[in-house]
Structures
1.
Amino acid sequence: MDTDTPTTGQVILVGGGPGDPDLLTIGGLRALREADVVLYDHLAPLACLDQTRPGVTLIDVGKIPRGCQTAQTDINALLIDHARRGRTVVRFKGGDPFVLGRGSEEWLACAEAGIPIRVIPGVSSAIAGPELAGIPLTHRGITQNFSVVSGHVGPDHPASTVNWDALAQSTGTIVILMGVAHLPEICTGLTSRGLDGDTPAAIVAKAALPDQQVVRGTVATLPALADAADIQPPALTVIGAVVALGLAPVG
């Protein structure tokens, strides 16, 4: 047997949840503890990196809005390079890797390179954020469905592939991720397509963190309210009748 032949390692895509270390899964924690290399985003629960073993290589590959950026091609190359050196590589991401997280792009890049890869799902902020603000996405007698869309560009931008016309006519709950910068355009776009401007709406910033902010209003009033509260990313917007339920902790 040729002992000089390198052994291919593996890549594990780990969803870290919305930010609170308590919301990382047991499987995700186990992967971090076994990792030789961790490539992490700034929205992952960074306190969990303390659980990695001595000597682990930690690499910040975050994409900060209007700040430092790591190109996706560079991230893919790092995953493949370290795995080819026989290492267990964890790609530590916020939320869930496959919910607007480019995890599938990383999967495809590794698979094409012949790198073993698996995913450990995470708690998506699209669901956890509203819940932690007291907003259920469905409620018997109110709505039986919800949609999660990206708001990284406005409804009329040519790069948007969201069917905003269908959303405006929907009776379900709408969750918009990455939409802070384009919130006025989004709300105007929805009302111009037929959504009632009095529909309850809320924005949840820094969900699951100690400084979580929740601003409630309507589709018509939310942009001004969010601006007055100086809401900054990361934040998500929830639109629909369920927002008016206003669940609050008891006891």
2.
Amino acid sequence: MKLPNKFFAASLFQTSITFIATVICVGSVVSLQQAQLTAMEQKNTGDYTKQEQSKKIYLDTLKQTPTFGFSNLVGSLIFLDFIQYFGDAAARDQTGYTLNTDYFAAVVKHNPRFVEAYLYLAPATSLFAGKPETTVSLSKKGLKSLSPNIDKSYLIWTLKGVDELLFLGDTKAAQNSYETAAQWAKVQNDETSQTIGNRAKETAVFLATNPDSKNARASSWIMIYSNARDEQTRQTALSNIEQLGGEVIVTPNQVTVRMPENS
């Protein structure tokens, strides 16, 4: 049955109004919180502890803000604010990275399919906030909304395996994560996915045959190095690889690690 044009126009108008109203609502809350945040920062120049508190209020407010079906938009806004927070070196030198877990939890809640965000938030939470157990917990939660068909979703499994192996010492869980990463990577038909999938499979084999293998640990660090979105994380990974006796080899197509024999 063909709907009358005026019915279609009315429906389209109503949908547009709903969308615009939602954007205005969400934008107003964000703008209000950001204005309050800016005012506090200007009033307390150099007082990074109070800035941290205001950020916490901002995040807690967004957790309670109705999204009217535009949760992904809110998640993206939170992630953009995290990038500013994480990159404020002067403030982080004073207060540390205590809100990394709050940002991670908020993004997973509102936009769990935002794969690119995990690539920043997971290492930031594990390496800088020192909360690998939180990273694993939030990754598990996010993976419930992901599938192998989503571009680069297999990377979440590799990052989870990294935390389980390097920081939590849970070899069995890490092995399972790497095996799953390899299976998911097969679904993505591109060279990068196949390379990372093969590396994940090799790491799972290392863990099955020798849980304390330096090769497995170096392979995990090279995954952090390859996926790092900031230089500090990259240097941390490089340093740990060198401590294991490995050498990072960078080519135009891939990044690999060369380990001594009997590692």
3.
Amino acid sequence: MKNRKALTVVTNHSDFENPKAAPTGLWLSELTHFYDVFEEAKIDMDIVSPKGGKIPIDERSLGFPVLDKTTKKRYKDSEFMALLENTKALSDIKDWSQYDVLYFAGGHGAMWDFANNEELNSLTRDMYEGGKIVSAVCHGVAALQNVKLSNGEYLIKGKKGTGFPFFDERLAGVKALVPYNLQEVLKERGMIYSKAFFPLMGHSVADGRLIAGQNPNSATQTARKALEAVKNL
């Protein structure tokens, strides 16, 4: 496989816009599991965020038993964590054609700064229409909801996919805090939505060059499907 490159986008948004709620941000394993798969395949990766700068990490993603062995290893790796201390801003990406994969990591913060970001929408459209892989997991799928193709249709219309289910927001204890029902929005935009039979089980869907994962437990299989798609470019 010729040299490939992936662009990973992580959230800058750190709160639920409710002073009584705990902070949020990036769900760390949704970045690290993808990173592990692509690093093992010797694919270079750049990590960016909408605004650039230090990335907030949702502390819930660091608690036991959420912090799995491989994520814990990354969390203790100062060189890796330094990548999140001062990320480049999306506007710093001048040539998207150098990338073969666009990946949106999740965490509840993504529901805010991924959803209505015209810069992200344009990047996603251009990369998808340019024959690249577009992938996202959990709340990172929020980045796909408002992307329209050049023909005016939503990117996800008629595509099989998934994203964090609204029922699971209750299990996470944040149903009253999220700004919208991501599952319903995806369906309204025309996604052929599916989810795992049991809550919090891993579930990943590939529809051509569009790949989505349901939750943190889906990040590795989402990355593997994205990697397989890259090999077919």
4.
Amino acid sequence: MFSGIISAVGRITQITPREVGFRLRIEADGLGLDDVGVGDSIACAGVCLTVVSFKDNHFDVDVSEETLSCTVGLDLPGEINLEKALRLSDRLGGHLVSGHVDGVGEVLRFDPVGDNRLLEIRAPQDLAKYIARKGSITVDGCSLTTNAVQDDVFSINLIPHTLEATTLKRLKPGSRVNLEVDLIARYCERLLNCASSDEF
């Protein structure tokens, strides 16, 4: 599990084709790999990936074709948001994030509002029902709060710290982003559906 609080911005520096998918090498100078081991989970642009090797300031992860088919940002060199998995003793500064991307959204607006930015995103239609005003959503691994929701479009106010500490500052209209909806919304839907079908 993750919190959606980005620990560092890393960089994909090497992409090696494998029989199925790719192996990525990610430079992670600011992440701190002293406590990372093979088999640990690191969220990369919101995608939970398993460390298969590491050395000095970089680590390697394998990405399957299935993951590539439902996410963006893992098939080209460039900057990427990073977060190590939570310990049970860690503070939960954002919200509970699984690292399992639900879909890819499209940026419609990225407008300055003073020092902030107004970010407007269109979500896939099947995810729209899970997005609520003043609720939590994960965008490229960042835990964010929605300001407004209308149909499949939602807006977020990005403060200067978030812009400085993440890759979100590079967004523009037409950019595609990884989205993970709030886990609680999915569990509530499941419970309600089971209750209405007398599964319990």
